[in-house]
């Protein structure tokens, strides 16, 4: 029988131990097909955010309570026909002494009842998860989910990212979406923000022409649906146990939100391994379609109404920005030349993609 020296035994032991750690940390970020934990099945009501119609009597935010201000902020956003968001998240998980960081960039475009959300995720550190790019289409009663053609972040280009044109990854009803991913995409937040899920408010602060409203959410009651998303995306064996969720909103005197900041801490479980996790998210809001750096049209099946939304490129996707800058010639930027080409539409109303490839439309919106 072959005998190993003490040094070799230690090397083998450390290698095995390292593999266990890596696999243990990775599961908290990896996008799997679904988790073993039981999701929160209670279907959300019409809205899971406290909502009020903003007053038109000339009053200012300081003339109202913190809860009323939250309701007015939600009400103002939900009444808009168009809005755009850019989001950036940093998540850090520690399990068995190993730390893995995940960075997520995303954006939403809402127009006339239809919302398109894109997410680009990458990780850093030993055992970091594979990069993921996902796009979701929210219609009246269906959500369509598809992934990017490439899993290489170098190939992502924000609003110009090439998405899979075949069968969608998932087509979900509202009930199915709630069980897998939580609250519907047009909700104000992934968290339940109602009067009974808010633990405490801070005093409203005025900073220049903006107001700041900060509050803490109940870490259990506010995260029921958000937990479904984490179970699905991370394949967790139990819903994460949240320690705190803190929210800060910046808004103007007419209750138009300009920024949301969320800070959270929770413990994730996968089998016998637990990871202590903290996350910081910043979401910025804009309301002028001309603010976008490029027009992004989403091709629907023939005979359907076309949606035109604008979306800024994400920070992970500088390549698209470079293409626009390098492609400027003849006095017109690249995105404007593409727009002119796209305006030559096919018969029966289907749009020709600017890449000039025949692609199947996104069904069931």
Spell out the blueprint of helices and strands:
Blueprint: H1 6-26, H2 66-78, E1 82-95, E2 98-111, E3 114-124, E4 132-138, E5 142-147, E6 170-173, H3 174-181, E7 198-201, E8 205-207, E9 210-217, H4 224-234, E10 241-251, E11 257-270, E12 273-286, E13 295-298, E14 307-310, H5 318-326, H6 334-342
Antiparallel strand pairs: 1-2, 1-12, 2-3, 3-4, 4-5, 5-6, 7-9, 8-9, 9-10, 10-11, 11-12, 13-14
Q: Could you list the spans in which at least 5 consecutive residues all have pLDDT below 50?
A: 7-36, 292-365
Shape descriptor reads: globular
For the biggest sheet, the summary is: 12 strands, antiparallel
**Binned strand content:** 25-35%
CA-based gyration radius: 23 Å
How many helical elements? 6
Label the structural class: alpha+beta
**Residues in helix, %:** 10-25%
Order of helices and strands: HHEEEEEEHEEEHEEEEEHH
Distance between the termini: 66 Å
Mean pLDDT: 75
Count the beta strands.
Answer: 14
What would you note in describing this structure?
- With 365 residues, the protein is an alpha+beta fold.
- The chain is 19% helix and 32% strand.
- The chain is built from six helices and 14 strands.
- The protein has helices at residues 6-26, 66-78, 174-181, 224-234, 318-326, 334-342, and strands at residues 82-95, 98-111, 114-124, 132-138, 142-147, 170-173, 198-201, 205-207, 210-217, 241-251, 257-270, 273-286, 295-298, 307-310.
- Strands 1, 2, 3, 4, 5, 6, 7, 8, 9, 10, 11 and 12 form a twelve-stranded antiparallel β-sheet that branches.
- A hairpin with an 8-residue loop joins strand 13 and strand 14 (307-310).
- Helix 3 (174-181) crosses helix 4 (224-234).
- It is globular.
- The model is unreliable at 7-36 and 292-365 (pLDDT under 50).
């Amino acid at each position: 029988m072959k005998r190993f020296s003490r040094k070799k035994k230690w090397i083998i032991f450390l290698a095995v131990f390292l593999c266990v750690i890596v696999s243990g940390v990775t599961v908290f970020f990896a996008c799997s097909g679904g988790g073993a934990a039981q999701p929160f099945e209670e279907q959300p009501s019409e809205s899971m955010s406290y909502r009020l119609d903003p007053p038109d009597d000339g009053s200012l935010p300081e003339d109202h309570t913190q809860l009323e201000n939250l309701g007015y902020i939600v009400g103002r956003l939900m009444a808009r026909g168009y809005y755009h968001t850019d989001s950036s998240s940093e998540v850090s998980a520690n399990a068995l002494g190993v730390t893995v960081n995940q960075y997520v960039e995303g954006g939403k475009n809402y127009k006339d009842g239809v919302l398109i959300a894109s997410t680009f995720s990458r990780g850093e550190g030993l055992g970091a998860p594979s990069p993921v790019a996902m796009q979701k289409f929210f219609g009246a009663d269906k959500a369509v989910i598809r992934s990017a053609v490439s899993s290489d972040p170098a190939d992502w280009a924000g609003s110009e990212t090439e998405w899979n044109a075949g069968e969608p990854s998932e087509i979900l009803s509202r009930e199915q979406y709630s069980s897998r991913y939580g609250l519907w995409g047009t909700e104000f937040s992934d968290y339940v923000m109602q009067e009974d899920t808010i633990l405490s408010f801070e005093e409203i602060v005025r900073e220049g022409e903006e107001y700041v409203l900060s509050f803490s959410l109940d870490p259990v009651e506010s995260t029921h649906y958000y937990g479904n998303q984490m179970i699905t995306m991370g394949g967790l064996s139990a819903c994460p146990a949240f320690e705190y969720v803190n929210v800060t909103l910046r808004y103007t005197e007419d209750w138009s939100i300009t920024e949301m900041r969320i800070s959270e801490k929770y413990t994730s479980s996968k089998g016998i391994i637990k990871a202590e996790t903290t996350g910081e998210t910043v979401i910025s809001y804009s309301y002028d379609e001309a603010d976008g750096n490029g027009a992004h049209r989403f091709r629907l099946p023939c005979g359907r109404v076309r949606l035109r939304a604008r979306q800024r490129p994400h920070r992970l996707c500088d390549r698209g920005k470079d293409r626009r800058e390098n492609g400027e010639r003849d006095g017109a930027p690249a995105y404007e030349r593409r727009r002119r080409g796209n305006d030559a539409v096919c018969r029966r109303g289907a749009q020709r993609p600017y890449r000039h490839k025949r692609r199947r439309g996104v069904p069931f919106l």
